[in-house]
Amino acid sequence: MEILHIEGTRSTPEIHFDPVDRVLRIAGESYPENSFAFYQPLQAWIAEFLSENSGAVVLNIGLSYLNTGSTKCLLDILDLFEEAFVTGRDITVDWHCDRDNDRAVEAAEEFAEEVTMPFNIIPINEFP
Amino acid sequence: MKTSDLYDLKDTLTRDQILICFAGPFSHSIIEELGAAVKHYLQAEQVTKSSLMSVFSIFIEQSQNIKRYTERKAAEGKETFFSGGIVVIGREGEHYIVCSGNYVEEGDIEETAARIDSLKELDPQQLKAAYKEQMRKELQPGQSAGLGLIDMARSASAPLQYTLKKTEDQRCFFSLKAII
Fold it and tell me: In chain B, which residue's Cα lies nearest the Cα of A107?
């Protein structure tokens, strides 16, 4: 599979997934005009990747804001990886959030509660 | 409109401590632009990051709701009847407020109004539970996630308020207010 790269905009995050190092990076703000239309291609790409490749995957996520439509889409994406994790695959989520933003930390914790795969909440200073 | 009326309009906005107000057709780029303005303003005011995120997220949810509703009505061929809306960000004492209003069909708004009423009864833990339950609901294609109102209620420091004003031409004007 080819590298997946989607440039970020003011309302959509940058997405980068290299099938060789198997790190999925999603960073920025997420309130697309149509969340489902924006995330559907990524979901399809992930589903295909997981069916073709069996290596460990790291999800490196740094979303400073998600609207509710994006939250639902992100949950669907985490579910795809969770499904792979429960069948024995090595998957880790590194979720970066602003340590000074209680709501962002809380949102991260709520995502973590939805899955059983390793989910590291990494509070950072000066979120970009 | 007389030019002197703009003074009255500005005077009203100042008196009511309105910081940002937009009325007209909502496009995605206008929502992005206003969102950036909201953020810059609040950063200059040195509000906490979580308050800033609450105001911003309520603004985004309200604006996107209006935009989506207008698009739905346009698809039904009722665009001119329901196009446009208004969103206001202001202060009320120690609090920031985000309000929005748009014309709706009465039948479309009953469920939303009932939802807001039911959310009023919930404490933060119950709101979180309601949010998680809704997050896990299967959606039909094109259906909205239905999380917006619960998310707004969670971001707000008081229950969401709304009013419905019936107009003579069988429309309703729906106003929603969130206090942060």
Answer: B128
Residues in chain A within 8 Å Cβ distance of B132: 110, 113-114
| Mean pLDDT value across residues A73-95 | 96
Global model pTM greater than 0.90: yes
End-to-end Cα separation, chain B, in angstroms:
34
Which residues, 6 or more positions from A17, have their beta carbon under 8 angstroms from its beta carbon?
Answer: A3, A4, A5, A23, A24, A25, A45, A46, A49
User: Is some CB atom of chain A closer than 8 A to the CB atom of B144?
Assistant: yes
ipTM, two decimals, is: 0.92
CATH 2.60.200 assigned to domain A4-124? The reply is no
Query: Could you state, in order of their start, the residue ranges of all structural domains in chain A?
Result: 4-124
- Residues from A contacting B (CB-CB < 8 Å) are 10-11, 31, 33, 35-36, 65, 67-69, 71-72, 75, 98, 100-104, 110, 113-114
